[in-house]
Protein 1
Amino acid sequence: MNIIVNGREMSFTGNNLAELIDRLGLDRAKVVAEKNGIVVHREDAASTPLVEGDVVELVRLVGGG
């Protein structure tokens, strides 16, 4: 399926948001995710399906001073 991730179209063969985050090599504990304009809580990532045309925004949290 084709989805949009952070403004770029990509082909994705997984089933849910958690799989996408893992495939991109991101730490789920440090990522804020939005699917089609709605924030997805971390604990819901594995139960949030992705389908053709979904728009996902992923933001990594970075600490520092």
Protein 2
Amino acid sequence: MKQRTNLGSEAGKHIILIIGALVVILPFYLMLSFSFKSPAEIQSISGGFFGAQEMMTDRKCLKAEKSEEECTMLPIVYNYTAAFKEAPLLRYLLNGVIVTLSIFAIQVIIALPCAYALAKLNFWGRDVVFGLVIFCLLIPGEVWFNKYLCRPCYSMDNICFRDFFNASVFQDCT
């Protein structure tokens, strides 16, 4: 016999999920929208998603003694050219790609032989090793990282006081 679902509870779940999605998406929407607008439009929170796109004059360009015609541009052009001039964004992107690909390659080189050994080979202690792997997968990396690496340690006469959310509140600081 099929169990009937309550339409009201399903609608309530979807409304909560939609509100949660909007809360998560809103900062990204605002960042993208602000990148298209002039500083005046950002401060007044006006102009819609793209802003008015009226020509604006770059003050830094004028201070560099360039002509006003060279320093007048659309806000979207100004914002993105200023961002790429101020910081080496393409280098940052390249660094991210290099780090991602190297982590992926190292994980594949290490994880594939280990997975094959655990799946296909019978050796003494295989079940214990497999249990340890599963146990480590159950605890997110953020928990391990925050607990052992990121928490500040305040020394008071060689006793280390960490926050109360940590399992080990008192440790030796050395």
Protein 3
Amino acid sequence: MRFQQAIRSLQAWLSAAEFERTRLLADEPWQTDATFLVYSLRNLLRSGELAARSAPDAAVRDIRRQIDKFKASVPSLVDLRDVLEHFDDYLEMKGNLQHPPGTPKGQRKSDAAIDRWAGKRRRRAPPGSFSFWAARQNDDDLLVGAGELELRVDQAIEAASKMAAAILAHGPNRLIAERLARRSAPAAFRTRGGEGPG
């Protein structure tokens, strides 16, 4: 029963992410849709993790492998969701990524904030800045991000569809899984407002 609920949740969050991707193509304010896209993808990952915890034993290894593939294709997703959800902590220089891992929230001081990206690559944003942005790179690759974090939208949707299809193949909705598996990569995006890679 819980596995079936996880599958329904997985389908709902994939639909939400695809809907937000479609809205990013329309002439709507990009910040709202990009934010909900990130939340949808994060909840899709949570649904996949719930499916792995509740799946029949024979399916668990494959589901975990699919989750790992998804995570590898969207390495900034969890941190990006954290920045968007806890924007107030980041504005006060008390966010998770601004302090050594494991620092309790009550012990984070703004004057002790660190810069994890110092010297690693050309900066997108000033140190400590986690402003939300959207941009197009190489004429067809839409990115959304905050500060130095980025999420490649088409790649994320394609990886989400593949993960969902693989997980659904272990459930009662095999026809939906087959349809998802046949999908092609999403169409390229137009540039939407905001700042981003230059």
